[in-house]
Write a structure and sequence with these properties.
It contains 15 helices and five strands. By secondary structure, it is mainly alpha-helical.
């Protein structure tokens, strides 16, 4: 449905020139969403896929292993959308303090994203409301160190920003003036908490994401926080028990459509076109996560069975293997620390994994060696490869 522009323009002076900044109308849309047959079917398919995803814990012996790596994959993807060049391997090495040669600013950004996600989820589990205060806290963690730490972490912007172009005057899109950000975000917060508009949680998440991106309340990091908001909303509402749905890969693969549909909402009020795109992304992403969990469960079972045939070394090799499942790149000293094995026992177990081609040594050195669980990391890296 084409409702016309979903906000108003305010003329403001920025950098010595007059600029038209867009101020979105509060949600929900007016006239109300037209959830006709096709959209209803898309919503039902997305909800069904989310239900299957929420049950993914039944597919893996230890859900925390999947969460650890899946969250890091999302951090890499979401940061890549913003232009970082860090890979999943870079992040895992950085977390081991074994990252010579990786782009440090980039990998710190990705590591901050993991910390921001963990912080937000911990706060929600404490019973803290999904609110502007929490959104600012998450932003503060996201820019707590490294590049961007000077751009008012945890504070709504106090100057005009813009998207595209070299200045507000030639920008593709100019968000609301900074003097109106607080009011816009207060209205968004009220929408997040509304219980009387009859909107399903997935629809609320879809609308809230566009509204957040339109307000662009921070000087930097709006895209990453806006994508996190989707996951936080679903977890806060109880649709997902764990943070297993991330749309960054879908948005990355369909980047042009994503930006075109955001613009269509603002210019013509076509929320339904955006919603169809969003729901398809949820369905495909949830389905992909379930399939990945199934592949990993089968792989873990197959590799474990092979190790069990390894004779006297099998016992220590299985403990080394469990450590590699928890963190797919590890050093022998780290394995000793996490498993309690002696260095000779850990080395012997790792030798068996290498012989079985389950693990591979990365450095080619005789000292300070690092080992990777190749097949596992290959599955996790799918979609994160740098162009």
């Amino acid at each position: 449905m084409k409702r016309g522009e979903t906000g108003t323009y305010v003329v403001t002076a920025t950098g010595g020139e007059a600029v038209r900044a867009f101020v979105p109308a509060p949600l929900p849309p007016t006239p109300p969403l037209a959830l006709e047959a096709n959209l209803q079917r898309s919503l039902e398919a997305a909800v069904l896929a989310l239900g299957r995803l929420d049950g993914v814990s039944t597919l893996l012996p230890d859900k925390s292993l999947f969460l650890y790596s899946y969250v890091r994959k999302e951090a890499v993807l979401s940061s890549q959308i913003e232009g970082t060049q860090s890979s999943l391997s870079d992040l895992l090495l950085f977390e081991l303090d074994e990252a010579p040669g990786v782009p440090l600013d980039d990998v710190v950004e990705v590591s901050n994203y993991v910390a921001a996600l963990d912080h937000g989820l911990a706060r929600l589990r404490e019973g803290f409301p999904l609110s502007n205060r929490l959104i600012r806290e998450i932003h503060g963690v996201l820019f707590s160190r490294g590049r961007g730490s000077g751009k008012d972490p945890g504070e709504f912007r106090r100057s005009q920003n813009w998207i595209g172009g070299t200045r507000p005057g030639n920008a593709t899109f100019v968000p609301p003036p900074h003097t109106m950000v607080a009011d816009c975000m207060d209205a968004l917060e009220r929408f997040l908490h509304a219980e009387d508009d009859g909107l399903p949680v997935l629809v609320r998440a879809a609308l809230a994401h566009v509204q957040f991106e339109t307000i662009h309340p921070f000087l930097d990091g709006n895209g990453r926080v806006g994508r996190l908001l989707i996951t936080f909303l679903l977890c806060h509402a109880g649709v997902l028990r764990d943070p297993l749905l991330y749309l960054s890969l879908y948005f990355k693969q369909h980047r042009q459509d994503y930006y075109a549909l955001l613009d269509l909402v603002r210019r013509e009020g076509d929320w339904e076109a955006w919603l169809a795109f969003f729901l398809e992304g949820v369905r495909l992403t949830a389905q992909g996560a379930v399939e990945t969990a199934q592949r990993l469960a089968a792989m873990f079972g197959d590799d474990r069975a092979r190790i069990e045939q390894g004779g006297r070394r099998a016992g220590s090799a299985l403990r080394v293997y469990d450590a590699l499942k928890a963190r797919p790149i590890l050093s022998l000293p780290e394995i000793c620390r996490t498993t309690g094995l002696s260095f000779p026992a850990a080395a012997s177990g790792m030798d068996l994994l290498a012989e079985l081609k389950i693990a591979r040594e990365l450095t080619g050195k005789r000292r300070n060696r690092l080992f990777v669980y190749d097949r596992y990391l290959s599955v996790l890296k799918e979609g994160t490869e740098r162009p």
